[in-house]
Structure formats: C-alpha cells, structure tokens
Write a structure and sequence with these properties.
The protein is α/β, with parallel strands linked by helices and about 525 residues long. It folds into 2 domains: about 190 residues, Glycogen Phosphorylase B (Rossmann fold, 3-Layer(aba) Sandwich); about 210 residues, Glycogen Phosphorylase B (Rossmann fold), CATH 3.40.50. It has 16 helices and 19 strands. The strands form 4 sheets. A 9-stranded mixed beta sheet has the order 5-4-1-6-7-8-11-10-9, sandwiched between helices. Strands 16-15-14-17-18-19 form a 6-stranded parallel beta sheet, with helices on both faces. Strands 2-3 form a two-stranded antiparallel sheet. Strand 14, helix 10 and strand 15 form a beta-alpha-beta unit. Helix 2 crosses helix 3, helix 9 crosses helix 12 and helix 10 runs parallel beside helix 11. The longest helix has 25 residues. The two termini are about 45 Å apart.
Length: about 525
C-alpha cells in the first residue's frame, strides 16, 4: 500500500467483482446493508469483568429500528481476543458478543493488533481528537512512526477487510448506509466492487475545516476525502459540518464544488451530494423507558439528591444541575465543574440547596489519554467539593460513574438545569432525550458549538464552551428562571424533537438514495 517514495499511495481494493450485475438499477431488490464499527451490543465493567448489554448510544439507537427488518444486514467490526494478560486493559468485542437474534449481524473479525491500531490509535486518538479540535490537549500532539504504521496496517487494513467481507458474504446489496469516521475509506472501496449500488456515508461527529485537516499528512486526508466521495451522498449532522467538508474538497483536492446545491464533482465524473441530516432520538421509545421498573427504582435512589419521592412529590427547596455524558475530553467536563464552583462563589446562598449530579459514562478506558482525562476531571471535582463542602453541608458535586441509562433518564426528568457544555459535538442527543422527559420543567444550558445548538437558540441558554464566567452566569439565570419561561422554552424544544425524530433521520437518508423501506 505504499508507492515508491514511501508515501501512502492511492488506496485500491484489488478484488474480483462478485455476481452483482453492473447494470443493477432496481434499488428495491436485495438487502439494505448497514456498516458500522460497533454492533448492537455494548460493554459495562461489572464485578471485575466486562458484561455485554444492549448499546444505548446515539448511533445504535437510531439505526436499530431499521436493522431489525428482515431485508437489512448489519456488518460490524469485532476483534479476536487479545492475550489474557491484556484483556482487561484492551477492551475488545468478539463475534459472540454481537450475536443478536433480532438482527441479521455479520461480524467482521479483525486480529486484536489491527483492531487496536484501527479503533484506538487512529480512530479515537487521532481522528476523534482532530475533529473535535482537541489536538495537543488530551489528544495527540504529533504523528510518529507508530501512528503511521497504525494508519497503514490498522485503519486502512481494517477498511479493506470490511470491504472484502461484504463482497465475500454473497449478499446482494441494494444500498449501503455507512456510519462514521471509522470508515472514511469504505465508500470508495465498495464502489470499486459494487459500482451501481447507491451508498450514503454519515458522519456522526463534527467535520473539520481544511486548516484542521492539514494537521494530518496529505496522503491521509486525501484518502479520507476521496473515500467519502466514493459515496453518492455524504451525510453530515448540520450545515455547520457540510460547509467545511465542501471547503476541504475544494481547497485540498481542487474539486469543483457547488456550495449552493451542495455537490462535489468526483474524479469519475459523478456529482456527489452533500446533505445535512440532523440526528435525533425516538420519543416514543424514550417515553416507554420512563414507565419501566428500572426508571422507577432509579427515581427512588436519586430522591436524596433530587428531592423527589414517590407519593410525596418534589421538595421545592431543592434544586439540581445535572450533566449526562461520556467521560471524554470533547465533553468539556472540567470547564463545567469550574463554572459550577464559580456559581457557588457568586451565590453562596445557593450552596445548601443546589447540587450538581454528574452522570459520567466510562469511555475508552483502554486508552491512556482517556484515563488521564478522567483523572483530571476527578481532580477538579475534588477541588470544588473540598472548597465548598463546609458551606454546603456536604459535597455539592455528586458523581455517578456508570453506564446506567435508566438512572440518567430519571435524573433528567427531575432536574432544574441540564448542562451540556461540550467543546464540540456532532449533535448531543442527551439534550433531545431530556426535552422529551423533563417534568420540572428544566432549563438547558448548551454550548454554541454543539450540533444541537442549531435548533435550540430560542429554547436553551447558549454559552461559549470555554467561558467559565458565562457558563456560571447562565446556570444562575436558569436556576432563577420563572416557571412560565421555563415551560415555554421547554415546549419549543420538545416540539422540535417530536417534529424530527430518529425515524425521520433514517427516512430522509433512504429518500435521498431513492431506496424503498419495509415498515
């Protein structure tokens, strides 16, 4: 995969085509193929071992209803188990873990070293950090020989193996829905084998402008952009992400770009459409979850902090600020906790009756950068708690470090303020779930750089993610807001969530591909 001078050459999938007709145009025939890094199951560290459970993340929750249909096949990556001595530190997922009778799952096995290089070293430590503008801070600060090997022998190799697995499966595709930054080269690889099958690649995280993309080697960014242009449709979360992608194609590839119509001229003469599809949640499914015994039990567990108890209602003297997010540098928890400390400085009278409940979901604990960030977050929490514990008659920040969706939903239902101050975010579906379940009603304080900010200008309080003072003042304003204004803001946001759900997100993509769907 290297050309004569040692640089990465054009990535080519040299595979014979299968028996799919080159003149195939009937998109209603064959299976709809979903391809993603992760499958339908996730992992929780419990009782000294990893426990498999249904994934609750945004990507899986949005594609799951479609994936359950009989004419849909879901390809996902799995890892061969690493040596036993490494299994705790190196989180991996096997084919057995992703078996699910309600889905047609085709696991693509990768040797553990390839999987770690593709998923950890490149996807999460480089691309994730780059696309969230985190280079140099809890992210990579240079690209050494090891990362170059990880790109070639991990990231590119994993995408090649996925393409081969799809071809070898013998499944006749009618369209491809390819998910996220792990699989940027894949659309071009699949087009070589299935040139007449329509495809859409959707990026769930922010897309950087061309100045940021120049922080990786030219051969890498060319592979990313040309890989995406192998699709018929390139999907982004918002117009904020579509425009940078168009700019990258123009500035870095010299491609002809039509900004008005959102198209890019590919090298083979095709016009690739660039469209925004705002990710969303499934309000009916969220509402159903709120009726579950697990949520009822969580309400009781949280009563000492939220002031809510069954049969007694809400203690109006208590107020809570919450956050619900993965423990990830992009989520900006450190600034959020510093802002809460500043709030208590500004308003010591709030100290006894306001608590900050932080529902922090363990994330990528096999990567040192995430462990270092976790330690820094806990250091900040300890500083705030130590400083204000006496005046607050207890620690004002309470941490729930677990992947417990029902507990988080119960907290969202009763909170006064939801803080989502991420540095950048593809969407931040927690905000949309909160809008469905909030009963207080609460007020959302959201970063201007989160994708969800595009629909919350009239309903949330928007802040700069690095503005400690501004975030503290926004929380103060939210806590003191009159109930009529709270209710009006929440109604506006809730209506927007119900008007564009996860089903609309999927349907819009299939319509863009002119693909029929069995409901």
């Amino acid at each position: 995969m290297r050309d004569g001078d040692g640089r990465l050459g054009r990535l080519v999938l040299r595979l014979p085509t299968n028996n799919v007709s080159m003149n195939q145009t009937k998109h209603s025939a064959g299976n709809l193929i979903i391809v993603s890094n992760r499958g339908p199951n996730d992992f929780v560290w419990q009782d000294d071992h990893w426990v498999v459970r249904p994934a609750s993340g945004g990507l899986v929750s949005m594609i799951d209803p479609l994936a359950r249909q009989s004419d849909v096949t879901w390809f996902c990556c799995v890892s061969e188990a690493p040596p036993a001595s490494e299994s705790r530190a190196a989180l991996f997922t096997t084919a057995a873990d992703q078996t699910d009778p309600e889905h047609h799952i085709v696991p693509v096995p990768l040797p553990s070293k390839i999987y770690q290089a593709y998923y950890g070293t490149i996807s999460n430590e480089v691309l994730w950090m780059l696309q969230h503008h985190l280079v140099g801070q809890f992210g990579y600060s240079s690209l050494d020989a090891e990362r170059h090997r990880a790109w070639t022998d991990g990231y590119l190799e994993a995408n090649l193996r996925i393409a081969r697995a799809i071809r070898k499966s013998g499944i006749k595709p009618r369209a491809f829905l390819i998910q996220d930054y792990h699989l940027y080269p894949l659309p071009a690889l699949l087009r070589e084998v299935f040139p007449e099958v329509p495809s859409l690649h959707f990026t769930h995280i922010p897309f950087p402008d061309f100045t940021m993309l120049k922080l990786i080697p030219q051969s890498w960014r060319d592979t990313i952009l040309q890989g995406l242009l192998g699709a018929d449709v390139v999907g982004m979360q918002t117009e904020w992400d579509s425009r940078p992608f168009l700019g990258c194609c123009e500035e870095l590839l010299g491609a002809k770009v039509d900004y008005k119509n959102g198209t890019v001229a590919a090298r083979d003469g095709r016009l690739v459409r660039v469209r925004a599809f705002s990710a969303s949640t499934n309000p009916a499914a969220v509402e159903q979850s709120m009726q579950s015994p697990a949520v009822a039990a969580a309400r009781e567990r949280l009563a000492p902090w939220t002031g809510w108890q069954a049969g007694r209602g809400r203690d109006e003297g208590k107020q809570t600020i919450i956050r619900v997010d993965r423990l990830d540098p992009s989520k900006n928890q450190i600034i959020g906790f510093r802002a809460f400390g500043r709030l208590l400085e500004l308003r010591p009278d709030l100290c006894r009756n306001v608590r900050f409940l932080a529902f922090l979901i363990p994330s990528r604990t096999d990567l040192s950068v995430y462990r270092n960030y976790r330690d820094a977050v806990y250091t900040m929490i300890d500083e705030v708690n130590t400083r204000f514990a006496a005046g607050c008659e207890g620690e004002p920040i309470q941490v729930f470090y677990t992947n417990d969706r029902e507990q988080a939903l119960a907290a969202m239902e009763q909170c006064d303020v939801l803080l989502a101050n991420s540095r950048e975010d593809g969407m931040n579906l927690v905000v949309k779930e909160w809008a469905v379940v909030s009963q207080r009603p609460g007020v959302a304080v959201i970063s201007e750089t989160a994708g969800v900010a595009a629909i919350t200008a009239d309903s949330a309080l928007l802040v700069s993610p690095l503005d400690i003072e501004g975030t503290a003042r926004a929380m103060e304003r939210a806590l003191g807001m009159r109930s009529e204004e709270r209710a009006a803001r929440l109604t506006t946001l809730r209506e927007s969530v119900y008007s564009w759900s996860a089903a609309d997100w999927l349907s819009a993509q299939l319509a863009e591909l002119d693909v029929t769907r069995d409901d």
